[in-house]
Amino acid sequence: MTGEQIHAIGRRRAWAVWGVAIGVYVLAVFHRSSLGVAGLLATERFDIAASQLAFFTVLQLIVYAGMQVPVGVMLDRFGARALLCVGLVVMTAAQLAFAFADSFLLGAVARGFVGAGDAMVFVTVVRLVAVWFRPTQVAMTTQLTGWMGQMGAIVAAAPLTLLLTHLGWTRAFAATSSIGVVLLVGVLLVVKNSPYAVATGPAESLREVATSVGRVWRNPGVRLGFWVHFTTSFPFTVFVLLWGFPFLVRAQGWSEVAAGTLLMAMTGWVVLSGVVIGQLTTRLPFHRARTAIVVVLAIVAAWTAVLLVDGPSPVWLVLLMAACVATGGPTSVIGFDIIRTFTPVRAVGRATALVNVGGFVASLVTVALIGIVLDVVEPAGAGAYDLDDFRVAFAAQYLCWGLGLVQMVRLRRRARAHLHDTHPEATALLRAGHQWLPLDDRP
């Protein structure tokens, strides 16, 4: 239950809470993305093949995706501050363990716990945005959250490459794990769950939890958000998290520095394209799903051109593909904005968690398929990869693109019909470019 308001909404205190929370998210993205530039080193350190390297990331993503619904329930129950603290502790310990791991099994376990800590962060930050900012601020602040979070991917690109080169595996990963201790102090001092005095209700039984999650999922707007996130985010995640760096180095003939720089530049493009996507989301809320569909079609077209070129692609085409893929990052945030139209704030944690599962399910499926295909077409290992190997392997992306596009088109119609039937006034307001929230979300 929500009681007396004790802090101003959308003012200085809100930005302070958001600032500390976004620092945790930046660190989470860094830990998540760190294997992207360390992948080739990992094959040597652990003496593993491509499918085993992919297993590190797949396990991390499985744990992340599998924990989303429990995290959403815990978020609604215990609040954002507790989950940020637990997530930081788990991520810090896991990354430190990864620094000293010297076998495939130990490395895999460490990456799994990185996924567990990471799973508690983004949905928590989105929940803080939902309760600490005014409805007119939420769309752009959520986009800003995505942009700032990608700073972690920037740090995991060229700077981490330099750390690994000069400090070595153990010292580089151990040093980066220590950042979590500093942020933990910040969370304890600054972050509050809500600007309102919140009374904790009775604990839910497992049956009540399952019923409430099922009720949220049956809402076509939530399912639309899931498929928007599923289809738009996985190309960027797959490319930056693991397979982009080897593709650029082995298939396109780029130097490691150039490949790391492109990964960093892609994250910068996330910010630039996010400004446009954020404005479109704010000004044209009725057409949010259509915006996502257009971006996905652009990504598919750009990747198709790269894969069909005879020989290494010209630099301009690789840059165009990278820009389209990076635009999928901020576009995926549209999924979280959509559910704000269909879900009251008391259930935002669960709805956000369900949507967040989408992109990571698509990512883990694609990461695993690429690794398996590479092992089949090139049994000699990572040192023998060439363009033809990656051309076959990256075709695995079309599976998730096709499924996602069909579901987005289908559920876009159902979500609009549902909203028109339940809240006829909402459709007119959204068409006119105004924000609309469920009744118990309005101030």
Automatic annotation (TrEMBL):
It is found in: Cell membrane. The chain crosses the membrane at residues 15-33, 53-75, 82-101, 113-133, 145-166, 172-191, 224-245, 257-277, 289-309, 315-339, 351-374, 394-411. It comes from the Bacteria. Keywords: Cell membrane, Membrane, Transmembrane, Transmembrane helix. It is a multi-pass membrane protein. Residues 17-416 form the Major facilitator superfamily (MFS) profile domain. This is MFS transporter.
